[in-house]
Amino acid sequence: MPSEMLSGPDLGAGYLHQLTTDRDGDRTTFTFHAQEGGQDANGPPKGPLDAFGYVHPPSPCPFGGPRCWHRRFLLPFTETARVRPCYNRSRFVLQAMIDQAYAGAAVAVESALGEVIDRIDRVPELANGAWTIRGSTAAWLLGAPVHPRDIELHVPRDAIDAVGRALNEYLIEPVATTDWPSLGIVRGGRAFVGTFVAGARVEWATPLEAPASIDDWGATPDGPRTVEATFRDRTLRVPRPEYTLVRAAGKGRTATVGPLAAWLRGFGADPELLEALLVRYRLSPPAAAQVRAALAP
Q: Are residues 79 and 35 in contact, defined by beta-carbon separation less than 8 angstroms?
């Protein structure tokens, strides 16, 4: 059955957007499309959309051509009314997200994190505190000299949808089965918590096929290693900063590695955990050497 356009063409951040659906019995794929819109979309855009999980399809898109960006979500067609607001908010906040990714605009981590925590505190599935803040925001909470690009949450699989309901009006992607280039096929969601012009991107997902992410690894079978962090008089458990350091090196963020490693020397590195992460994350020899040299006294 051919694709059906549900919305568009719409404008946002230098791109033309469409929302389409492809139905195959009970199986439905919703697709967010985006292609450069030129002057009609107040373009050209400041940067590409791969930073937000978009990919180019393997063949030319009938709506946007060979350079169309796609985000796809597998949901029942009855969820259309839930997908539409996510699509609209995604294009409304896209300029803010692009400015943060490519123009040095501030990410409103503190205000967004406060809102996220307040809402998660009301999620029954997470009443036992079985969730953590991960990535650069976790290191930032510990005082590391990093500037978080987003807020990454880790929640149990049975709470993925509940977090989406808690952040419903902020969703830029529906909670769904989808493909995240960094994790493969996941059940997850994304939100932009804040206004249309200022806020922070929030992500949470659980892999359905790929192995667990780096933050789930430990130096022993006991699991990931965490420490306590304080935010607005609240104590949170977060992964140790070695996770952030190794991920930064693996993603080629060399400007982050040196300052973070220097700070970690004062914080107190965990050599056993660091070596385990360097091996399991499969850093290139030069990248691993850079990390070790940066941590040397």
A: no
